[in-house]
Design brief:
The chain is globular. It has two domains: 68-77 and 169-361, Vaccinia Virus protein VP39 (Rossmann fold, 3-Layer(aba) Sandwich); 83-159, Golgi alpha-mannosidase II (Immunoglobulin-like, Sandwich), CATH 2.60.40. Helix 5 links the parallel strand 10 (215-220) and strand 11 (243-247). Helix 3 runs parallel beside helix 4 and helix 6 (250-260) packs parallel to helix 7. The two termini are 21 Å apart. With 363 residues, it is of the alpha/beta class. The chain is built from eight helices and 17 strands. Bound molecules: S-adenosylmethionine (SAM). GO terms for molecular function: methyltransferase activity. Keywords: Methyltransferase, Transferase. One of its GO terms (biological process) is methylation.
């Protein structure tokens, strides 16, 4: 697809507006709000004071030829039976998540809605963000009160949708294209494959990898997210599959894996712009990403398959993470493919951009 775009997004702090569209729902912005209001975090993760910063990793320029490159690559999620972006506009999006129609703020939807108002009025849930409380209070259910969770599906995989206080519902649908790509790599490898899913959230990528036959290590700093991911594993009927669920700071985890000599064939990392480990460790995308990318390279098996980085950023373009990945994977052969993840809208076919990505693929 052919629409490279410079994505310097508006980084001005936004206040929720009464009666109108709330601010942009990019994950990055949500995380920034969390940063400003720590008491509102969905999953308070630590009672500890922030840990003192460890010595920063000394980064040495990697020798060897750069991997080939493919960019811009726009990876698209089209409307499907499990999920559809039905319409967007006026700072909001109308989505179908399994049985429910949901309206959420979408700051990038600066165009007009394509569907008539009556289609939007048929929504089952609307994120209002009205209260400072956690949970359901931030949602309005126009037809009838709904429970906090509901059954969802991705490509035959059952999991739990949930109305969270941060307008998320437990899945980032644009990631589905990465999951499909990863599942193909695992199946085609025809050998045991080890996958590391860093910042794994509710575990969909981990479940897709396990179903495809991989041995999976899933890392997230939030106990709540890990609990939800484990519930999803049971719901998906994958309880017997080899998934290690680890509640830890992602950076600490990879540093330890490097020291121990643990190795992976596929690594996914989908970090927030800002986050905290369970012991208060601070993750800042722009500060922490080069070291994490470098460590990810060094914990690959001798025959690795792919490293997939997604960024929900307000300042970078995909060229920035492309350059970082190409530098880091110099001498490894393969290709660096970079671009954006978009969701294709059902009503008028417009593309809703969600994030930047860059991935190294061995072949
Ligand atoms: C952007 S979400 C990841 C979404 C996920 N990859 C998916 O597609 O569903 C960010 C996740 O990173 C976790 N997180 C934030 N800071 C972290 C840290 N320092 N170490 C590990 N996980 C962290 C959060 O708990 C959250 O679940």
């Amino acid at each position: 697809m052919k629409h490279p775009r410079d994505k310097r997004r508006d980084s001005r702090p936004q206040q929720p507006r009464k009666g109108g569209a709330a601010p942009a729902p990019t994950r990055d912005r949500v995380e920034r709000q969390q940063e400003r209001k720590p008491e509102q975090r969905p999953a308070p993760r630590q009672d500890h004071a922030p840990e003192p910063k460890a010595e920063p990793r000394k980064l040495v320029r990697r020798e060897g030829a750069f991997p080939a490159e493919q960019l811009p690559l726009i990876l698209e999620v089209a409307p499907n039976d499990d999920y559809a972006l039905l319409d967007s506009g006026n700072g909001e999006k109308l989505e179908q998540y399994g049985p429910y129609r949901i309206v959420r703020p979408e700051g990038q939807a600066i165009w007009q809605r394509a569907l008539p108002a009556k289609e939007w009025e048929r929504a089952d849930a609307v994120f209002t963000g009205d209260t400072d409380e956690e949970g359901l209070g931030r949602w309005r259910f126009p037809k009838m009160p709904l429970g906090e969770t509901w059954p969802m599906r991705h490509d035959g995989l059952h999991y739990q949708g949930r109305f969270t206080s941060f307008r998320h519902v437990g899945v980032f649908p644009e990631q589905a294209t990465h999951w499909d790509h990863m599942a193909r790599l695992i199946v085609d490898a025809k050998r045991p494959v080890k996958v590391l899913n860093l910042f794994g959230y509710t575990g969909l990528a981990s479940l897709v990898a396990a179903r495809a036959g991989a041995e999976v290590t899933h890392v997230d700093a939030s106990k709540k997210a890990i609990g939800w991911a484990r519930e999803n594993q049971e719901m998906a009927g994958l309880g017997s599959k080899p998934i290690r669920w680890i509640c830890e700071d992602a950076m600490k985890f990879v540093e330890r894996e490097e020291r121990r000599g643990s190795r992976y064939d596929i690594i996914l990392f989908d970090p927030p712009a800002y986050g905290r480990g369970p012991k208060g460790e601070v993750w800042q995308l722009f500060e922490s990403l080069p070291a994490m990318t470098d460590i990810c390279r060094s914990i690959l098996t001798p025959k690795p398959l792919a490293v997939v980085l997604t960024a929900y950023s307000i300042r970078a373009s995909f060229f920035a993470i492309h350059a970082l990945m190409r530098d880091t994977f110099a001498g490894m052969g393969g290709t660096i493919e970079s671009g954006e993840l978009i969701i294709r809208e059902k009503s008028a076919g417009r593309a809703l951009s969600t994030s930047l990505f860059s991935r190294w693929v061995a072949k």
